[in-house]
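Methods: example folding runs. The two proteins below were folded one after another, and each record is reproduced exactly as written to the output file, sequence line first and structure-token line second.
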Amino acid sequence: MKPQKVLLFLIITLCSLGIASKLLPLLHIQIGDTKIEALPDFTEQFDTKIDSSAYFAEIKAQEAKMSLQEKKEAILKKPHRSTQDTLILMQVEAMESPAKFYFANDDHSAMDKFFAALEQAQADNTTFRMIHYGDSQIEMDRISSFIREQLQKQYGGSGMGLLPALEVTPKYTVAVQSQGSWNRRLTFGGNENRAKHNRYGPMAYFCKKESSEASVTITARENTSFKNRHFTQCRLLIGAIDQALTVQCEYAGKTISNTINPSSTEQLIVFKTDSAQGKITLKFSGANADVLGIALDGPNGVSVDNIPMRGCSGTVFRRINAETLKRSYQLLGVKALILQFGGNALPGMTKPSSAEAYGKKFYEEIRYLKSIDPNLFVFVIGPADMSIRQNGQWVTHPQLENVRNALRKATLDNGGVFWDMYEAMGGNGSMVEWVNNKPALGSPDYIHFSQRGADKIAQIFYQSLLKEQDMYQLRKKIQ
């Protein structure tokens, strides 16, 4: 039989069966208690709809189980990529980078909130203040100045941030010259420098006026950025005083003054200095006040303060009175903190248990700062590679990675964001390479950065921040 005839026969047969099953749906055969359809309606098989939503839900469930690396491999095979695909590729790149940020449960929402707050401040023409606390690695305004300059370029703002009335370690961005009698009281260093009270304020130390008259002249250095020199307001944070204090502000040939009355709480004196041109002199008379800080900023945009704390391991913040710190942060508009510590915990440390104990103390410090303001964004930068001499060779301190791990755990357990400076440098033995680099990126003590090295690590940090910002922008598009 010809194939055409066979095909015609099959079509006629199937059609006949279909018609019969529709015309005879009630025909049954009874066998005992069982009723069997003699001719079931087989066309029902063709009427059943496929549940496409369940199918695609299953596909999504399978994708969710895939690792980012597996997703990356699948995306690279696609002829076209979606915004979601681009985001995944960027996440994989960030994960593979030694300069990546670490988040609790890999939840980037903390970073998203940080960028959203920066954008909101820019849109509302308000301020966003970040305080960079750290050990001697940030002395002379190193690292902080680069972050300040870059954020101000993008989000606006001006000035060099919060300064003391008496500067012990000079900054390469600004000079502070003090006249009269001033005395520093610190939360860190030897006990002989402690105050009789704990109202230290936002710098973790204050400068006490101890003569009937005293003055401070602040000058932005010529080699710094335009925004650094062109601050437009000066704000003085003054501690509790028992008699009136008068401050006279001189700038660009102008003189203005302000007097505040006795108070048991902190007060803010504000001077508008639109034409200060990078130089200002403040003359104090009256009460022997605790000057908690002098902020030179703009009326809006970003401010980044550089607070170096030589010899400090970052476990001193609980020495600051909570109400004083809370009020100070509110008056100055502090929204974010960078805590850069760890190196000063290492000398004399020989056991992993010591690193673990240090991490627990640091956890309590972050917890305390978050209790001051639960909305604070907290970034922790771990220690740089630090070398010691062993058998005639410079090697990484044996406990450095344990300290780094302890700081990371303390940060993530508090919902903060951690950046591993040690790995960003290159990990084990990297300080030796930085010292031997031409020109040198590390100091001869194999602990500190050179100025070039500080600039380089600041650039690496900020590049990591920009990558997170790019991912934040993509997440906004997808939502």
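Second run, written to the same file directly after the first:
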Amino acid sequence: MLQKEFKMFDRSRLTIQPVTDRKTTYYPVRRFREQVSEDEQNFIDTLKSDIEDKQKVIIGFGAHFIKNKCQHHLIKMFEKGYITHVVTNGASTIHDFEFAKFGQTEEDVRQGLAEGTFGLWDTGEFINKAINDYTPLGYGWALGKYIAEERDKDVIWPAACSSLSWHCWTRKIPLSICTSIGHDIIYEHPDCDGAKIGAASYIDFLNLAETLEGIQDAVFICVGSSVTVPMVIEKAYAMAKNVARDTGNNCSCYIVDLLDDTGAWNGGEPDTNDSSYFIRPMKTFNRMFPDKCMYQTMDNRKLMQWLTV
């Protein structure tokens, strides 16, 4: 029996509004000052020493890293030449772009869902255009080039000079955006081309695998990414290790999140009956770099503030 033909949603019926008409909920203060505990200070000192010694850093993070404006501190690390590759998700690019063009980001999701407006803003138009126009560059550099080309044409963009994607493009630092179909508001927009997003994001993934091939004496940092960063780096690392067996020699990893640290991963892999076994960053990076991973419960702003002082 043949299945009934499935009817796709017609996106031309959607109402897209300008971000400038949106009630924005997030205007974070750039300057964040909070003292660290003794444990946090020891962690930061160890990480800082490792970075200064190896001067080769692969850093990955979730979208709150950008929303909290931690990219300002990351750019300082760019200036020292420490950053080899940046890995993040699609949501990070939305906050990065909105800060650059509008000087603000985030919306009231509860209200937007109730009113049918959530995510249906012209942010999707701009980011999709960047990907559609510059697909061969990969997602990350496509957005960076778009900002470089379009900023300040009609109106002054308030924070283009602090955009992570713009800095990565102009400094030629690889920026891998590992997106998931349907996860981000750009997928709601009528101009979204899933094939081009997939192609651009896969280019970024292959670029990451290329960076990792044969990498040694490097520091991996995972900040506030429970799934995307560890899973993506794991697969790229496996590909790199397959063709270059010395990949990962003398590499270390530092994980920062808000998870309660039970210490279950200290000294080996916990039993599958232990809930800590299912903490993806701990599982993935401890398997990649046995006995060379450290975890610290800490706010991402505090980490980046004290890491770059």
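Comment on the second run: The longest strand covers residues 83-88.
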